[in-house]
Structures are given as C-alpha cells and as structure tokens.
Design goal:
This protein is mostly beta strands. About 15% of the residues lie in helices and about 55% in strands. The strands form two sheets. It has a five-stranded mixed β-sheet. Strands 1, 2, 3 and 4 form a four-stranded antiparallel β-sheet that branches. Strand 2 (about 15-20) and strand 3 form a beta hairpin.
Length: about 110
C-alpha cells in the first residue's frame, strides 16, 4: 500500500521525491537547470539480529550499491539500491540513456556515454 520514488518532468524541468500511500503520491516539485549525471556509489550495510529466546545477537554485514541522480546545482537524489552492481547498472543504463546523461561508477570513471 505504500512506496517511494523519484519523478522527473523533463519538459517543465522539475523533479520530486514522492511517497505514495494507497496510490496517492505526495511530494514537492523542485525546479532544476540540468541533470549532470547518474552515478553508482557503494556502502556497507550492517544488521544486528537478536535471537528470540536468548540475549545473543548476530551481526550481518553486506555491501550495497546505490544509484543516484545528480543535478547541475549539486543536488543529489537517491534512486534505488541493489546488492548486485550488475543488476543496478542494467537499470541505471536505461535511465541514463533516456535522460541523455552519462553513467559513472563510484570513483567517477565513465561507464557509458
């Protein structure tokens, strides 16, 4: 019944980060000059899980890849995350192609033009 995402209106040069509850989207539209790039960043994610009957906890660590959209004024918007960089790049390539912007990896090297 709920989700969140990013919408970009290229004709009006506006974007919004929205939250959707029961199919009603809410979020403020913000104007932008240009979209600079789509890029990939990496982060470590840890989760602490306690057992049901004891006070013992286990910590699970994983690497997560995040996709971002960067505007010319420096604003960065988180798009989505995946555990697999390859799966993330498949989605980001389509997005970068439709926006007409470059796709870069987490160290700033070009992936696609």
């Amino acid at each position: 019944t709920g989700n969140e995402g990013v919408q970009v209106d290229m004709k009006r040069k506006t974007f919004r980060e929205y939250r959707c509850f029961f199919f009603i989207k809410g979020g403020k539209w913000i104007a932008y000059d240009a979209i600079e790039k789509v890029y990939v960043s990496v982060s470590k994610v840890t989760q602490k899980v306690y057992t049901a009957h004891t006070n013992h906890a286990s910590v699970f660590a994983d690497t997560e890849f995040n996709g971002y959209l960067k505007f010319s004024n420096g604003v960065k918007v988180h798009l989505f995350s995946r555990r697999s960089k390859e799966k993330l790049l498949v989605s980001l390539r389509k997005l970068a192609h439709s926006l007409g912007v470059p796709l870069e990896d987490n160290v700033g090297q070009p992936v696609d033009r």
